[in-house]
Design brief:
Structural class: mainly beta
Mean pLDDT: 94
Number of strands: 9
Low-confidence stretches: none
Distance between the termini: 55 Å
Strand content: 25-35%
Length: 110
């Protein structure tokens, strides 16, 4: 951006605008060890490095949490290394950009 005054004085500055893609949050995955959908991969999550993800079971007990969630540390359907049963779990995603947290249901199938 360059601005010129009536006295012919100029001033310039630059601004970098980054357009972030919205998250694509799957509602089901199958951590059965077959190499397909074994982790809960949230597409474009790498754009939000300060994110925080929490997952709860149907009784409200936290089974997973991770700061800086991404495809390399994505949830594998376990708690403390033990496979969780099939069923519905509830997630809360805080992307820490001033917007409200995202929440919904994720199901484990095998």
């Amino acid at each position: 951006l360059t601005v010129t005054s009536g006295d012919n004085c100029e001033s310039s500055d630059e601004v970098l605008v980054t357009i972030l893609k919205p998250l694509v949050i799957p509602n089901v995955f199958s951590p059965n060890g077959d190499g397909v959908n074994d982790r809960w991969i949230i597409k474009y999550m790498e754009q939000y490095p300060n994110s925080f993800v929490e997952i709860y079971n149907r009784y409200g007990a936290k089974v997973y949490e991770r700061k800086g969630y991404n495809s390399s540390n994505a949830w594998d359907g376990t708690k403390n290394g033990n496979p969780l049963p099939i069923g519905a779990y509830y997630y809360v995603i805080r992307i820490n950009n001033g917007k409200e947290p995202l929440s919904g249901v994720i199901s484990i199938v095998r």
